[in-house]
Please model this.
Amino acid sequence: MFKNGTFNGTAAFTATGSGSWYWATGGSVDYVNNYCGDLFFYSVPANAYGFQYARTGSAYCGFGLYLAPIFQPNGYREYLGGQLLDTLKQGHTYCISFYVVKADSGKYYTSDIGMYLSPDSSVDYSTNQINNAFTADSYYYIDDVSVIDCTVGINEIENLKDKINLMPNPAKDESVYRIILNKNETGQVILYSKLGVKILNKQLAEGNNTIVIPLSELGAGVYFVQSFIRGKNIDNRKLVVVK
Model:
C-alpha cells in the first residue's frame, strides 16, 4: 500500500515530502542509493555509515535511532515518513513488514523498531535537526517497507478451512494451491510479494481448482497468496520460499 516500498528511483525520497518518502521530523533521514554518482557519502553498497547492499533494487534509507544526550538534552533520533495509497479500513487486519539492519558505524543494537500509522500527517519539523548524524551511536538501514490488507472473516475461515490447501509450504521449486468453489462461483487467486507487487494471477471456476505456483525464479522470503470469490477476498495465506 506504499507507493514505493523499495525506495528505488531518483524521486523516491525528499526532505520536504514531495517524494514517496520524507523526513517525518527535523531529523535528517538519509537516502542511500546508486543514483548519486561519485558522492561516496550516500552510495550503495559502501557509504559513510558502513557497507550494505539493498535488499531490493539499489537504494534504501538510513536513520539514527539514538545519539548520546550530550548532543541534545533528551538524546536524538530520526523518523522516516511515508503515505499510504489507500485509507486503512476499520475492522480489517493488515500485515506490516520492513527489513532493517544495523550499520557498521552504529554502536548499539535495538529490538524495538516499529511503524506508527496516523489518520493524517504526522510530520513535525519543529524538532531540532543535527547535521552529523553519521556519528550516531545507533544507526540503521531500512528497506522493503510493506502494508498489505490480509483480512479474512472468522466465519469464512471456518467454512473454507476444509476446501483450501497450500502445499508444500515452505517450498523451493513450486507450491500447489487447491480450492473448491461452489456451484456458479468464480474467482481468482493472486500471488503477491511482501511489497504488494502482483506476481501471479489465476482464474478460479466452480468445483476443484488446482493452481501450480512456480517458485524457481523467485527469491527466498515470504509471499502472500490471496483468493477472491466474486470479487470478495476470502482467503489469505503466507507462502515461504526457501533456496
